[in-house]
Amino acid sequence: MSKLETNQVDPSTGTTLTLGTSGDTIAIPSGVTIANSGTATGFGGTNTPMWSAVPSSNQTLSSTTNTVLNFQTEVTDTNNAFASNKFTVPSGQAGQYYLTAAIRINDMTDGKEVQLAFKKNGGYEFSEGGTNRYLVSNSIQGANGSIYFNHQAIVTLAVGDYIEVAVYQNTGSNKDVNYTYTRFSGFKLIT
Q1: E-assigned strands of the chain?
Q2: What is the pLDDT of residue 111?
Q3: Structural domain of residue 174, as residue ranges?
Q4: Arithmetic mean of pLDDT, 70-93
Q5: Could you report the per-residue pLDDT of 24-53, keeping only the tens digit for each?
Q6: Helix-then-strand count for the chain, H and E
Q7: Domains held by the chain: number
Q8: In 18, 20, 27, 94, which residue has its Cα 20 to 30 A from 67's Cα atom?
C-alpha cells in the first residue's frame, strides 16, 4: 500500500471525482473531521414519512367518552400517508416513529381530568419491550379555565399500522377542542 499526500485532488475531466470502486471501503479514522461547504448526498437518511395535520374547526367532546379527533387540513404529508384523521404506515416504511399531538380545551372545570392518547389500529395498546402499554398523557385541571397540553411517544410500527389521536374528558358536560391550538404530527426516525 502506498500513501498519497496532497492538499487538493481535482478530477482531470468532467465534474465528478470518484474514490474507489464498487465493493471498496473508504476508511475515515477516528478523530478526523469532515468539513462540508457543498451539498452532501447519499449519506444517512431522511425523516420521512413525515406528516402534520390540524383541525379546521372546533370539535365537541362528550363527557366520559373517548373521542377520535378530526384533522381535516394537512400541513405536510410527504408520502400521502395521512387521510381520514389517521396516519397509515406506507409500504416499505416500517420502523420507529416519533409521534406528537397537542390540544387545548376551553372552559375546563377545576379538578376534572383530560386524557390525550394515541390509538394504534383502533385500539389503545402498543406492544413495546414485550409488554402491552397504553400511550396516554393526562392532566388534572387546577382551576376553571382552558387547558393546553401535548403528548409525545416513540413507537415501532409495521406496514399498514395506523395511528389516531383520541381525547377523554370527565367534566360532566360537552367541551370544545380549540382547533387553533390542536395538531397531530410525526415522522419516521433514522435508525
Answers
A1: 50-54, 59-61, 67-68, 73-77, 82-83, 86-88, 95-108, 113-120, 125-128, 131-134, 136-140, 145-157, 162-169, 175-177, 183-188
A2: 86
A3: 50-188
A4: 97
A5: 888 888 888 888 777 777 777 789 999 999
A6: 0, 15
A7: 1
A8: 94
Is 83 part of a structural domain of the chain? yes
Q: If you compute the radius of gyration of the chain from its CA atoms, what whole number of angstroms results?
A: 24
Nearest by Cα to 138 from 98, 179, 163, 103: 103
The pLDDT value recorded for residue 31 is 87
Do residues 144 and 91 make contact, with C-beta atoms less than 8 angstroms apart? no
CA distance 104 to 180: 8
Residue 71 domain-assigned (yes or no): yes
Within a domain: residue 166?
yes
Of residues 143, 142, 154, 146, the one with CA closest to residue 178? 146
Q: d(Cα 2, Cα 166) in Å, to the nearest integer?
A: 64
Q: What is the pTM of this model?
A: 0.77
- Say yes or no to pLDDT of 1 above 70: no
Here the CATH number for the domain that contains residue 182 is 2.60.120.40
Q: Which comes out higher in pLDDT, residue 95 or 109?
A: 95
Grid coordinates in use for 17? Answer: 471525482
Residues pairing with 156 in the sheet: 96
